[in-house]
């Protein structure tokens, strides 16, 4: 049985060297596209294309930053924790675990207390 289209796209994305470098770097600290371009030795348009694809799968999140001189820029942080691939009875399934932000974690804990 073939893997679904989303899983194929996810595999292709994770196979991309720039996407992996972005995920690794932003798992340590949030970084701007400029800083990521430097770390990846890539152009900013290349970095923005990879970030767009990573955001499509909710593997990175962005946050608006304000410079003291009044300029705005975004930083990106990895949300990916784990990708699990299971093969069972002729079926391949893919599960992606992401980090929870504080608000989501609080909501989940509150709902569990009820």
TrEMBL record:
SUPFAM superfamilies, A to Z: Winged helix' DNA-binding domain
Identification of the protein by name: ArsR/SmtB family transcription factor
Cited InterPro entries: ArsR-like_HTH (IPR011991), WH-like_DNA-bd_sf (IPR036388), WH_DNA-bd_sf (IPR036390)
């Amino acid at each position: 049985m073939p893997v679904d289209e989303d899983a194929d796209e996810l595999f292709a994305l994770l196979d991309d060297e720039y996407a992996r470098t972005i995920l690794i770097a932003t798992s340590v600290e949030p970084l701007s596209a400029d800083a990521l371009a430097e770390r990846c030795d890539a152009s900013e348009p290349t970095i923005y294309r990879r970030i767009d694809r990573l955001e499509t799968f909710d593997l990175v999140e962005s946050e608006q930053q304000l410079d003291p001189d009044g300029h705005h820029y975004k930083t990106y942080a990895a949300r990916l924790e784990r990708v699990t691939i299971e093969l069972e009875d002729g079926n391949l399934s893919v599960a992606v675990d992401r980090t929870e932000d504080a608000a989501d974690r609080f909501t989940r804990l509150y709902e569990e207390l009820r």
